[in-house]
Amino acid sequence: MSEIVVLRHREISDLDRLDVYQRAGGFEAFRKVVTENTPAQVIDLVKASGLRGRGGAGFPTGVKWSFLTADEFPRYVVANADESEPGTFKDREILEANPFQFLEGLAIAAYAAQAGVAYIYCRGEFWDLTRRLDEQIAEMRRAGFLGRNLFGTSYDLEFHTHLGAGAYICGEETALLESLEGKLGQPRVRPPFPAARGLFNKPTVINNVETLANVPPILQKGVEWYRSIGTEKSPGTKVFSLSGHVARPGNYELPLGSPFRELIFDHGGGVPGGKRIKAILPAGASAPILVATDAVLDTPMDYESLAQVGSVLGSASSIVMDETADMRWVESKITRFFVHESCGKCTPCREGTYWMLHLLDRIREGKAPAGEVAVLHSVAKGIQGKNLCALGDFAAGAVASAIERFPEDFSEREAAR
Q1: Residues 6+ apart with CB under 8 A from 275
Q2: Please, what is the end-to-end C-alpha distance for the chain in angstroms?
Q3: Closest CA to 242 of 264, 271, 273
Q4: Which of 228, 250, 329, 385 has its CA 20 to 30 A from that of 218?
């Protein structure tokens, strides 16, 4: 049994109750850092742990905290709970079943950032979870974990939740900040970055739910313990959301560097009906698709190894497709999603996703003239690297990789499905 860091509720019943969480050591790390450590010392510990952002980019968390503009206040910390990536459902489980570990991580991040206020930006469909979070925050306040002069010190802290309106784009950190300020959820021009000019134009740290849930165990059990899990460059565990053509879809917490084969067969039960695996989307809709060769199945699931095989780990939502999957249909579904979710601010993304979907539909229907697949590939390549955020690149990368890696599915000689 591998070490469980984040999904501890699977081992401890009723961990969503504050009294149970406290009996399991909850808020000891927060009390310790506030009473015994300086904010800079906390940042150094998180840096030393090697914790990387679990929202998708994998950027070192402690380094991100250290980028805050010096001597400028107030500062803010924002938790990104806008989980909208297709095939990703890890943060929801944490919020439902182990919320206080996340909230403690957010409190520690706020102390490290010297922020007196932290916001939790929740996906619009999480209205039920957000209402429960408000109740849990009130419990924390009554227990003395929020408010003024925490633990007899001069440190003050408050939490606020904010419910989005269901826009995928608000998972992008600067669009999230715009939405949180009451503006249209569209990405900002960078630089300046949020660490310098974030929420309300002040220095801001933004972290994903899973990232923050890793912080209390690191400070409680130590850097060496955490670095003993995973790989040298990608320490710790990762919650992998497994879905698609698998017998047992669900969330599985494994050490970073575990191979796809272990996730899909040992934990996911393999492909129903004994069918062959054809493809894997390792990061939901937002990753280049992989041909499920033996080499790919044996690839360690970490940030460096996925890059070497031409994709990304991202939020680690692995969508498995068996031999019956038609990549034209798959890419049509993905592109339709991105057309709908594009905020429309950048012309290459707004127009390019529309034209990719138009071309994909014609190819699927057998109405495309000769050379249309090449045109589709050209449109995809023309979108990449020309937008304020990564949405356009995600959409284009999925289509371009499918054409390059599954040319037989895009053959213009094939009959339309």
Answers
A1: 245, 322, 323, 324
A2: 44
A3: 264
A4: 250
How far is it, in rounded angstroms, from Cα 30 to Cα 312?
A: 33
Coil, strand or helix at 304: helix
**Sheet strands side by side (includes 158-163):** 158-163, 117-122, 76-81, 204-208
- 344: CB partners within 8 A, 6+ apart: 350
Q: How many CB atoms lie under 10 A from the CB of residue 54?
A: 28
Cα–Cα separations (whole angstroms), residue 407 to 46, 183, 291, 377, 402: 45, 43, 11, 11, 8
Instruction: Give me the residues paired with residue 77 across strands.
Output: 118, 205
Q: Please, are residues 186 and 343 in contact by the beta-carbon 8 Å criterion?
A: yes
d(CA 364, CA 132) in angstroms, rounded, equals: 45
Three-state secondary-structure class, residue 112: helix
Report the alpha-carbon distance of residue 57 to residue 243 in Å, rounded: 21
What residue has token string 């599954």?
A: 406
Task: Give the mean pLDDT per block of 10 residues along the chain (417 residues).
Answer: 88 98 97 98 98 91 96 97 95 98 98 98 96 98 98 98 95 96 95 96 98 98 96 96 98 97 97 96 94 97 95 95 96 96 95 96 85 94 93 94 94 51
